[in-house]
Every structure is written in C-alpha cells, then in structure tokens.
Amino acid sequence: MADNPWNFDVPTQMRQFAEQSVEQAKKAMDGFLTAAQKTAAALETQANTAQSGAKDVREKVMAFAEENIANSFEYAQRLVRAKDVQEVMALQQEFLKAQMQAMQAQAKDLGTAATKAAADVSKQKS
Questions:
Q1: Shortest CA distance to 42 belongs to which of 121, 106, 101?
Q2: Fewer Cβ atoms within 10 A, N terminus or C terminus of the chain?
Q3: Which of 68, 72, 65, 66 is nearest to 91 (CA)?
Q4: What span, in angstroms and rounded, lies between the C-alpha atoms of 16 and 2?
Q5: Contact 86, 121 (CB under 8 A)
Q6: Alpha-helix residue ranges (DSSP H) falling in the chain
Q7: 83: helix, coil or strand?
Q8: Could you report the per-residue pLDDT of 49-60, keeping only the tens digit for each?
Q9: What are the pLDDT digits (tens) for 60-113?
Q10: pTM of structure
C-alpha cells in the first residue's frame, strides 16, 4: 500500500455521505427541471393566447384599412364626376363626416378587441 499513494480506502461514512449528496442533488435537479417545464408550458399557453388576440386585432386593422381605402377611391371617383365647386365642397363635407364616424367605430372596435386580448392573457396567468 505504501508503494502506491493513490491506493487508499474511502471510509464507509464518507462514501454514504457522498452518495446521499449526489442523490439530494439529483432530486433537486429533477425538481428544478419539473418546475422549468411547467413554467415553459405556462409561457407557451400565454404566448399562444396573446398571439391569438394579436391576430384578431391585426385582422381588424387590415379590414379597416381595406374599407378606408375603398371609401377613399369611391370618394375620388365621385370628385372626378363633380360638376361644380359647390358639389365638390358637399362631397368633401360628406366624406369627412363619414370618415370621422368610421374612425370612431373602428377605434371602439379595436379597443374592445385589445381589451379582450389582454383579458384572455390575464386569465391564462391566473
């Protein structure tokens, strides 16, 4: 035994202590990984919910943009056909009034959609 300095017996108590330490560390890591998986799943659910709400808002914005563009082209066509300045002024006033009403309705609709999306995400957090 004196010939090889690396040849020594590990006391039984030290071996048991080391085994217990490794087992405790393994249990702690397993608990950490389980908690991390649960957190990742919750985040994924929240992201999917937020994505769904964002998709709804995005679709509304695109529909509103299409509607506004169509209204603008219709207005331009009517302007081109106007016979005099009074008709141009009347068309302008009518268009502005209609656009203001549309903007109010669109803003209300977008606000409702955004509030719903936020509420859906909040529900997922609970």
A1: 121
A2: C
A3: 72
A4: 26
A5: no
A6: 12-80, 85-125
A7: coil
A8: 777 777 888 888
A9: 888 888 998 999 999 889 888 888 889 989 999 999 999 999 999 988 988 888
A10: 0.58
